């Protein structure tokens, strides 16, 4: 199962997230849920890096299926929108495929 942990600041703005695990929907290399989550997360990270001046760290481990994003600067409007869009996409996957494959914790 993919578990998503959202970190927020004092104002309730998402300033980091941890995505951990594998969905187990299908075998490695054919798992459409893992693929969808990976595409959304990697595209968001690349978009923040390309389209904003915000500073962040990323830690990933393919074996465990962990990607951790931590914003280390003030979060621009653009990054907030990109992260909100990511969360919307992840929630859509959870609604479509159910909590046995992906869930927010």
Your description of this structure?
- The chain is α+β, with helices and mostly antiparallel strands.
- The longest helix is centred in the C-terminal third of the chain and has 21 residues, at 77-97.
- The chain is globular and about 40 Å long.
- The protein is built from two helices and five strands.
- The model has no long low-confidence stretch (mean pLDDT 95).
- It has one domain (2-104): Cysteine protease Prp (Alpha-Beta Plaits).
- This is Ribosomal processing cysteine protease Prp.
- One of its GO terms (molecular function) is cysteine-type peptidase activity.
- Keywords: Hydrolase, Protease, Ribosome biogenesis, Thiol protease.
- One of its GO terms (biological process) is proteolysis.
């Amino acid at each position: 199962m993919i578990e998503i942990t959202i970190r927020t600041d004092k104002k309730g703005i998402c300033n980091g997230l941890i995505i951990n695990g594998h969905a187990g929907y299908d075998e490695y290399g054919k798992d459409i849920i893992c693929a969808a989550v990976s595409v959304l997360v990697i595209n968001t990270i690349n978009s923040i890096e390309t389209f904003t001046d915000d500073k962040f760290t990323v830690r990933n481990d393919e074996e465990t299926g962990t990607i951790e994003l931590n914003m280390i600067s003030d979060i621009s409007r653009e990054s907030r929108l990109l992260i909100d869009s990511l969360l919307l996409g992840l929630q859509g996957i959870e609604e479509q495929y159910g909590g046995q494959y992906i869930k927010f914790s």
